Amino acid sequence: MALSFEEQTRIDLAATFRIIAHLGMHEAVANHFSAAISADGKQFLLNPKWVHFSRLRASDLLLLDADDTEAAHRPDVDATAWSIHGQVHQRLPDARVVLHLHPVYTTAVACLAQPKILPVDQNTARYFNRIAVDELYGGMADTSAEGARLANLLQDKRRLLMGNHGIIVVAPTVGEAFDDIWTLERACQILVTAWSTGQPLKVLADEVAEKTARDWEKISDFSQRHFEEMKHLMIQADPSLVD
Ligand SMILES: [Zn+2]
Known about the structure:
- The chain is an alpha+beta fold.
- The chain has a single domain (about 5-240), classed as L-fuculose-1-phosphate Aldolase.
- It has eight helices and seven strands, in the order αβββαβααβαββααα.
- The chain has helices spanning about 5-20, 80-90, 105-110, 120-125, 145-155, 175-195, 205-215, 220-235, and strands spanning about 30-35, 45, 60-65, 95-100, 130-135, 160, 165-170.
- A seven-stranded mixed β-sheet has the order 3-2-1-4-7-6-5, with helices on both faces.
- α1 packs across α8.
- The longest helix is centred in the last third of the chain and has 23 residues, at about 175-195.
- The radius of gyration is 17 Å and the shape is globular.
- About 40% of the residues are buried.
- Bound molecules: zinc ion.
- Zinc ion (ZN) binds near residues 100, 102, 165 and 166.
């Protein structure tokens, strides 16, 4: 029998938690991913508070409603997760999948006085002029006002580089969101490694960077395939992921 949209999304999101933990891109038992289930985006799946990504199963994900003011007080809902994801799903119905991480290289770039991802290769060029930057870090994002401010910064972009903090990526599908946050971390790893040589960088011309970014946007099926392959590996390693 075919899986319902919610059932499939639960499996895809659970697989994403496993993949991110497998790749060491998670932060302790913090960080959070969500995926909208309803057409208006307000009903969404979220990981429960402080459970390690590497043991989350499809059925462990919480189904929440962005309009439910009581959800913030549930013991299994992390306050910062509720503030960020609740507000993004409330305000941006097209942001179907929302991933928030503090991966090392992306966060290192976010800690620079000028957190700009220079186009120096194919990976970095994917993000050319396509990242919003928040330069107003003010402590843990645990209020709806802070979540609303972050959602507002995303508006016309799919990635928000959060200064002194980390990253939020939004996408139409779990697969595209995963591939995007993974490629961004890789791009930042390449950039930081290039900087670490102390040699001058050869930055791509704007036209080349723009063309490369557009080329990436034409191959969302590549992102999906990357995700499907990784999901397959995770289910093979632990079939209980889909439970
Ligand atoms: Zn964070």
